[in-house]
Amino acid sequence: GYLLQFADPEGGVICTLRDGRWEPGIVEKGRRMRDAPQPAESFGYVLIRGQLYAAHAEPLRLFTRTIGSLLIGLPLDETVVRQLGDWVEGHVCFVVDSKAVICTQGIARSVLLEQMEVAADRMETGILAEEGRPWALFSEYLNSHAPGEGYKVYAIPLERTLAPFERIRARLILAALATMATAAILGVFLSR
């Protein structure tokens, strides 16, 4: 289901509709549409009652006067996260308050997911060897205007990327061993 959230010109939430139903519990006195993307960057994410939405905010205008804003959100479900995972050829998880809200299938309750949750707020690329497989971990803010609200974390397997370098390394080691063996044999032969 979708999300529609209406706010006054100061960003105070007036009304929230989820799946076409009004949810009065979401309207809290003093609550602001702080999670909403800013006009300069109209796409972002918002977390409402445990559901993460991909959201777009638009100002509502009556002639030249801004009378409020409208936030339109589509839920991030397993299909969307799976498509993101397929796109990056790895795993994706969305982390809010140091906990994964949604992630690609196959990593729930895994050590890799725990490492992704830990890597969320680091905002730097890291390499992790999990179950003998090398992974590149990196994260980005869900909302660049409010960095602490959450993160999107990617885990990309490096096996295919590193495979040619592993083959080169193995060949160099073999070449070095062959050279050392040849040098030893020539040394023994020439010393006689």
Descriptive tags:
single chain; 192 residues; alpha+beta; six-stranded antiparallel β-sheet; five-stranded antiparallel β-sheet; 3 helices
Number of strands: 11
Structural class: alpha+beta
Query: H/E order of the elements?
Result: EEEEEEHEEHEEEH
Mean pLDDT: 82
Strand content: 35-45%
Oligomer: single chain
Describe this structure in words.
With 192 residues, this protein is of the alpha+beta class. The chain has helices at 78-88, 111-119, 159-191; strands at residues 3-7, 13-18, 21-22, 43-48, 51-62, 65-75, 91-96, 99-103, 126-130, 133-141, 151-157. The chain contains three helices and eleven strands, in the order ββββββαββαβββα. It has a six-stranded antiparallel β-sheet, with no helix packed on it. A hairpin with a 2-residue loop joins β9 (126-130) and β10. It is elongated, with a radius of gyration of 26 Å. The N and C termini lie far apart (87 Å).
Give a brief rundown of this model.
The protein is an alpha+beta fold and 192 residues long. The chain has helices at 78-88, 111-119, 159-191; strands at 3-7, 13-18, 21-22, 43-48, 51-62, 65-75, 91-96, 99-103, 126-130, 133-141, 151-157.
Show the helix and strand layout.
Layout: E1 3-7, E2 13-18, E3 21-22, E4 43-48, E5 51-62, E6 65-75, H1 78-88, E7 91-96, E8 99-103, H2 111-119, E9 126-130, E10 133-141, E11 151-157, H3 159-191
